[in-house]
């Protein structure tokens, strides 16, 4: 079975959908949601986005897939914020293919306008693979997005190609501490020291911080001690469909 053909069909036949993982502060309140795409194919079954995003990037399907993600998550987010009072951010993962596509900023602004969502609620998650592209173009797009109040987060920080000198030159708003560092934070002194370093980098660059993949209370406690006060992970909630997010909001309120 050809994943690319199935994905093309899936995009046209509504086989893809979004789930949302709460982002929680040190008081246990949900302050944001990360949108994550899912695909349940009739023949292939459940396919991980780690696999099909890669296929999409290599087959010209990343732009339609990215547009589906932007449109669906902003529409569902709009429906949520109509019903709840607390302020929430929406974080959306952006592929380097989307980010470097001419007109990307307008695509995002149009999607925000269509769904009447404020740019100041939106965080775009980019990865270190972006640094392999044209630096001036990447910088221009980041500045353009930020001039509209959209925030930028560096996802999976510490696992990729970024150098501290590149980080220094790019105006980003948030660092996401990768799960691989959180995994060892309680028992592995090296992982703990990595987290301490990342906290120091975020502070010196005036960036906010969030830790990913928090699965245990002890990890959250260790993170708080080190100065990281925002978390995402199974300990707080798995990614859930938007219909279930309100229940999570009440549980964590
Ligand atoms: O949700 P999960 O942990 O299975 O995601 C696996 C990978 O797929 C992660 O690297 C995640 O960032 C990526 N991913 C999930 N949803 C999206 C999406 O909507 N767009 C892009 N570009 N990547 C996504
Ligand atoms: O690359 P990115 O950070 O966007 O991917 C996030 C991925 O991590 C999602 O696929 C999500 O399902 C997964 N995830 C989120 N929290 C946890 C967790 O606590 N444990 C594990 N194993 N995976 C998680
Ligand atoms: Mn992410
Ligand atoms: Na990540």
Automatic annotation (TrEMBL):
It comes from Marinobacter nauticus (strain ATCC 700491 / DSM 11845 / VT8). It comes from the Bacteria. The chain holds residues 504 to 756 of 768 of the full protein. Residues 1-253 form the EAL domain. This is Diguanylate cyclase/phosphodiesterase.
